[in-house]
Design brief:
about 250 residues; Arc Repressor Mutant, subunit A; Beta-Lactamase; three-stranded antiparallel β-sheet
């Protein structure tokens, strides 16, 4: 494929990146302007993506994401090796602790929850499968970030200065690096009302055979329920489950 074709395909797929929680509907004219392409090109992108089921008409000349994405998400759930091997261990953790169990992944620069096993008293989580989480708040993102190579972590800091400051994290590189080094050394992170004031979470990393971080495993509950148990008692349970899951990925 030529460089020109590669570039055109990348721009067309960039249409999908325009859709966010804050902006769920677009017109072809608005898409053309956002991508800085001609109107005929923008309309062609919309038609091709609509024909593929990745977009659908929503009235008033607007389009939104299409049903093919739901089908693809079903296939992802079926093929995700972490879920294939991890769900039985997540169910066991729920039975042992009475807390919800969540697995999260880092996809690009977004942390996403990919599965949740519910306890008999489910936590009132605002985030769920597919909704990007804040990158610098909460247990799961922090244990994931703590496992990243130093260069990758430095690039994230350079690109997300305002978010880091808003999260109350160190804003100088030496202190920022030390903060996450401490989490990495501990092997877990406990957040208490950090992401959502009513929730507590304990998380450990999920590591591939080569040491690369592929996600996080967390136990989540209301702050009041978590206060009834010493959080450190959850760490060996989570670490054992994470080890069992990751050993099966190898």
């Amino acid at each position: 494929m030529s460089d020109k074709a590669d570039s055109s395909l990348a721009r067309m797929l960039g249409v999908l990146d325009l859709f966010t929680e804050q902006r769920l509907h677009w017109t072809a004219d608005e898409i053309s302007e956002a991508l800085q392409v001609s109107l005929p090109t923008g309309y062609r992108y919309v038609k091709m993506l609509t024909d593929a089921g990745l977009l659908q008409r929503a009235g008033d000349a607007q389009v939104t994401l299409g049903p093919r994405i739901i089908v693809l998400d079903h296939f992802i759930r079926q093929s995700d090796p972490v879920l294939q091997h991890g769900i039985p261990f997540m169910k066991e953790l729920v039975a042992l602790t009475g807390f919800d169990c969540v697995v999260s992944s880092l996809l690009g620069t977004q942390v996403l929850d990919t599965h949740r096993e519910y306890s008999s008293v489910p936590a009132d989580l605002s985030y769920g499968r597919g909704r990007p989480r804040p990158l610098f708040l909460g247990a799961a993102p922090k244990v994931i970030l703590a496992q990243l190579p130093t260069g990758t972590l430095h690039k994230l800091m350079d690109a997300h200065g305002p978010e880091i400051a808003a999260a109350g994290l160190p804003t100088t590189w030496p202190e920022f690096r030390r903060y996450f080094s401490r989490i990495r050394k501990a092997g877990f992170y406990f957040s208490n009302g950090e992401l959502e004031s009513s929730l507590s979470a304990m998380a450990v990393p999920l590591l591939a055979f080569d040491g690369r971080v592929i996600g996080a495993l967390s136990l989540v509950s209301a702050v009041q329920r978590m206060a009834m148990i010493e959080p450190s008692k959850l760490v060996p349970l989570l670490q054992r489950a994470a080890t069992d899951i990751c050993s099966r990925l190898r």
